[in-house]
Design brief:
With 575 residues, the chain is α/β, with parallel strands linked by helices. The protein has helices spanning 2-36, 74-85, 104-119, 133-139, 166-171, 189-192, 198-222, 231-236, 238-244, 249-255, 268-273, 321-333, 351-365, 381-384, 413-418, 441-465, 470-476, 484-489, 499-510, 526-546, and strands at 46-49, 92-96, 123-128, 144-148, 175-181, 261-263, 299-306, 308-310, 318-320, 337-346, 348-350, 370-379, 391-394, 399-401, 405-411, 481-483, 495-496, 516-520, 565-567. It has 3 domains: 1-39; 41-153 and 224-290, 2-enoyl-CoA Hydratase, Chain A, domain 1; 299-522 and 562-574, 2-enoyl-CoA Hydratase, Chain A, domain 1 (Alpha-Beta Complex), CATH 3.90.226.10. The strands form 5 sheets. Strands 7, 10, 12, 13, 14, 16, 17 and 18 form an 8-stranded mixed beta sheet that branches. Helix 3 links the parallel strand 2 (92-96) and strand 3.
Length: 575
């Protein structure tokens, strides 16, 4: 088994080294191409935005490896649209939203940029083969919405579905001991129950209703043509309406005012040409040509914390405590940085890692102003790292709060014994931290006290940093999930806002007249990553080809760590 593990590790590291070398060669090729190219493309009167998957982090986005990734990140898109608004040669922004993949927070921020574009007297036109609640929300900001003649507008509201595996675990004879603080903290219900608890049903119904209401308000505000359309009526009677229109979902959407014009792709150029004179129109995405980076000695840093919060070094798609702390330290040492905009999009994770990051942010906040911007989710540990004495903004689609703590100890004693695997144990003390037997009274008492203590620290910190009494904090805590709007009402968040609002706050607090947006990456640099991969390859090669280590028959001790979880497991299931 050890031999196979070394072999596969060797193969994996070799693959990474080859890919990194290839990656550097491609970068050199692209750099040379840019250096020798003197050709400049004309933007033309119609600028096209046809996004697929939009990168919402500040890590570098190498779209030539992942064709689904859009060329600009979310914040660059916002800047490019606002820059286009100031260009005299641009008259129309055309959006093809057929393959749009972005968060609700991102939609609101792009929508704000579209309002700036329209306020300059320019037109925004949106098209999609098919609309759902995400791309329709963005399309609602347009002056005209076009759809394919065979398309449909499929709005299904918001829902949350949770699996329950208690019976499955019983079938496998796997025991689970849970430790929870907060009556709404429902993360472990999936292991211990067969259906939603009353508390979980109450909180879920509440925040789903709030964000659906927010969605409808934005759409109805943007689409003045459908003030009389009851959107719930459309969703709840879609089957009957479709029957009335003989299955013609496109004509139905137009009849209800959701769509302005039905067309086909081959007719798009002709339609767009009606808004400009004697100009050649291309539907090739060219928004990136409008992106201009301002240059200034003063910087406002933009950093994204996205994913589960974990201990240790960099891990793709996670917020790693050591790596993220190092990034914050670098920001602190950079004297050109006058403020930090931190986007948090996380359901939480390790309680210990969350505290390490919070402490680093607290140190940084003594030197520069920080604005915390919550994305679609900033709950539990995601809220823990937000709550220093800094400005916190959220949006109507944010899920936050979940101020509660949990831990779980599984044990596989019965399931292993059933298949003939037995264990015997010798220990010097009565503290059985093991996956092979149920916790004894000593461990059970310790774990529940540890969880309760962590929860008490959590609400005390919220009370201090949010200027709330302990009693009022306790009422809004209990592991309950809140929408952005309710979080503002409960003083967990300062105000509703998006990227543009956060930058304006930092601009005012820093008293900056001129500044440059600086995107801060959390991923290691190419050279560092390549060196690390080569080093690992050399070590593995020596281990793999030189010798195979003897199997350890006696293992006296191993490193263990007890941690509590500040994770909202229900939140990511919302969409």
């Amino acid at each position: 088994m050890s031999f196979l593990k070394k072999f596969f590790n060797f193969v994996d590291i070799t693959r990474k080294v080859i890919l990194n070398l290839f990656f550097i060669l491609v970068l050199l090729f692209i750099a040379i191409t840019f250096l020798v190219s003197d050709v400049k493309e004309d933007l033309g009167p119609v600028i096209t935005f046809a996004p697929k998957k939009i990168n919402e982090t500040t890590n570098q986005n190498f779209f030539f490896f992942e064709q689904e990734n859009y060329e600009l990140n979310l914040f660059e898109i916002i800047s490019a649209i606002e820059t286009s608004a100031s260009r005299s040669d641009v008259e129309v922004l055309f959006m093809d939203l057929t393959y749009l993949d972005v968060s609700f927070t991102g939609i609101l921020e792009i929508g704000e940029a579209l309002e700036v574009f329209k306020n300059k007297g320019k037109r925004v036109i949106a098209y999609s083969d098919f609309f759902d609640k995400k791309n329709y929300l963005l399309a609602s900001y347009a002056d005209s919405i076009l759809m394919h003649r065979n398309g449909m507008v499929l709005l299904d509201g918001f829902s949350s579905q949770k699996p329950f595996i208690r019976k499955f675990l019983q079938e496998l004879d796997i025991g689970i001991t849970t430790f929870i603080s907060g009556k709404y903290k429902s993360a472990l219900d999936t292991l211990t129950r067969d259906r939603l608890s009353e508390e979980d049903r109450l909180q879920t119904s509440f925040y789903l209703s709030e964000i659906w209401k927010a969605w409808k308000e934005i759409v109805l505000k943007n689409r003045k043509k459908i003030p009389n359309l009851e959107i719930d009526q459309y969703v709840n009677n879609l089957g009957e309406f479709t029957k009335e229109f003989d299955g013609d979902t496109a004509e139905l959407a137009k009849n209800k005012g959701l769509i302005d014009i039905l067309t086909v792709r081959t007719e798009l150029k002709r339609y767009l040409s009606s808004f400009v004179k004697n100009q050649k129109i291309s539907l090739k995405d060219n928004l990136a040509l409008s992106y201009e980076k301002n240059s200034s000695k003063n910087k406002i840093a933009v950093l994204v914390a996205s994913g589960e919060i974990i201990d240790g070094e960099y891990s793709e798609g996670a917020i790693s405590s050591e790596n993220f702390s190092r990034v914050l330290s670098k920001i602190n040492k950079d004297k050109s940085i006058k403020g930090l905009f931190l986007r948090i999009n996380s359901p939480g994770g390790s309680g210990f890692a969350s505290e390490i990051i919070r402490e680093k942010l607290e140190i940084l906040s003594k030197n520069i102003p920080i604005v915390i911007s919550m994305g679609d989710i900033a709950a539990s540990g995601g809220y823990w790292i937000s709550m220093n004495k800094n400005k916190i903004i959220a949006n109507p689609f944010t899920l936050t709060g979940s101020i509660g703590v949990w831990a779980a100890l599984p044990n596989f004693k019965n399931s292993l014994e059933k298949i003939g695997v037995l264990f015997d144990k010798i220990s010097t003390n009565e503290f059985n931290l093991s996956l092979l037997e149920p916790p004894n009274e000593n461990l059970t008492s310790f774990m529940q006290s540890y969880v309760d203590g962590s929860y008490n620290r959590f609400i005390k910190l919220v009370s201090i940093y949010r200027n709330l009494s302990l009693e009022s904090t306790e009422k809004i805590a209990q592991g309950r999930i809140w929408s952005g709007k309710s979080a503002v009402q409960n003083n967990l968040v300062d105000s509703l806002g998006v990227f543009q609002d956060g930058i304006k706050i930092l601009e005012d607090q820093s008293r900056l007249l001129d500044y440059e947006i600086k995107f801060i990456s959390t991923s290691p640099g190419i050279a560092e990553d390549l060196f690390s991969s080569l080093n690992s390859l050399l070590n593995l090669s020596y281990s793999f080809f030189g010798y195979i280590r003897n199997i350890e028959i006696h293992k006296i001790s191993s490193k263990r760590k007890v941690d509590i979880n500040l994770t909202c497991l229900a939140c990511p299931e919302l969409y």
